[in-house]
Amino acid sequence: MHYLKRRRSPQRNVVTWFQRTNQTAPSLLPEVPQGSHHRSHPMDPLASPAHGWFPAPPPPIYCCTLTPALVAKAREELQEKPEWRLRDVQALRDMILKEQPNLRTRLDDAFLLRFLRARKFDYDRALELLLNYHAGRKAWPEVFQDLKPSTVKHVLDLGFLSVLPHPDPSGRYILCLQPGKWKPNDYPFVDNVRALYLTLEKLIQPEDTQVNGIVILADYTGVGMSQASNPGPFLAKKVVSILQDGFPIRIKAVNIINEPRIFKGIFAIIKPFLKEKMAERYVLHGSDVRSLHRNIPPTVLPGQYGGSAAHLDMSAWSRMLLDCEEEFIVEFCQPDPLEGVVLPEDMLLEGEAGGGPEEDPFRAVRSQLYYCY
Question: Among the entry's GO cellular component annotations, what is one (predicted)?
């Protein structure tokens, strides 16, 4: 049975990836006692700036922060049993040490729990997701090299993305995207992806998000041919692959509002890369805010979407990320985690055929976009 398959006998022989690779940990990281199965989180949450509306990072040593209601939800939806939680984490940790001994990855409980929850505590699928998580960085260096908030401040200041300050009644934070604010002549599309990834990294820290997932609200006001055709199918496939198969977050719904006629062409580019379950979670509302309110209640939406919440301060999320600059430096500005690691041939984004920065983004989609436009 699958339930029995995932409960492998854990072993208690664990060291950090710094110790396994005989490297000296960067000075920003705290020391970890030899043989300890806990690796501290890179940042001390008490040292992080306080933002009252968004939870702080998890504590260095794991301590469950879920409410009783969320513990019950995790048990029902994610097959997470509190009494076995740390045993499951240890089992995944042992798999990593045994099957990928050269992988440089965090091994602390809080980090590994993200991957277990995203794959409903299936050890094998959680390990595959973790490898995809790191493989995505290797396959797309222009996104992940020197990835920190200060390098995408122009995207954050523009208001391309933000996070609504209040979650919906299901406890899901709402990631708000406004692609019409981006103009291809201003900066490369890949900068938007960098800002999006940093946002997801911050959103996934709280255990509430790991259990509840997130909702995306994409406002396509102002999107025209230049924005629609610029990424091209190759980049679209990379973005979708990372979100679906390379990041430990549950995207529960994607609400599209104010989409122009050209969106049919945009979605035609994206849909072939979406899994059926994810494609079904796309909801197109047009300009009908009443339709939007059936999916996201007006109490959490700002006035521009017919809601009763306060006006959306687009700079709030920018400040949140910029205040966490050091945290992201520790997380991303380190040696290649996959150096010396042999990945399966079918690993995410490895050996992608065709395409590249020099490919014509209009090829294969130009006629369809113009038809819709």
Answer: membrane
Which has the closest alpha carbon to 230: 291, 281, 184? 184
- Asked if the 2-27+34-42+58-139 domain carries CATH number 1.10.8.20, the reply is yes
* DSSP-derived pairing of the beta strands 161-163 and 173-177: antiparallel
Confidence of residue 271 (pLDDT cuts 50, 70, 90): confident
Determine the average pLDDT of the residues in 211-222.
95
Superfamily of chain region 144-327: CRAL-TRIO lipid binding domain (3.40.525.10)
Concatenated DSSP letters for 263-311? HHHHHHHHGGGS-HHHHTTEEEEET-HHHHHTTS-GGGSBGGGT--BPP
**28: helix, coil or strand?**
coil
pLDDT tens across 88-98, in order?
999 999 999 99
Distance CA 254, CA 284 (A): 9
Which residue bears the tokens 């409903």? 120
- Residue 239 in contact with residue 349, Cβ under 8 Å? no
Please, what sign has the CA dihedral across residues 114, 119, 122, 124? negative
Report the predicted TM-score, pTM, of the whole model to 2 decimal places.
0.79
**Collapsing DSSP states into helix, strand and coil, what is residue 256?**
strand
The side-by-side arrangement of strands in the sheet containing 173-177 is 161-163, 173-177, 214-219, 251-257, 282-286
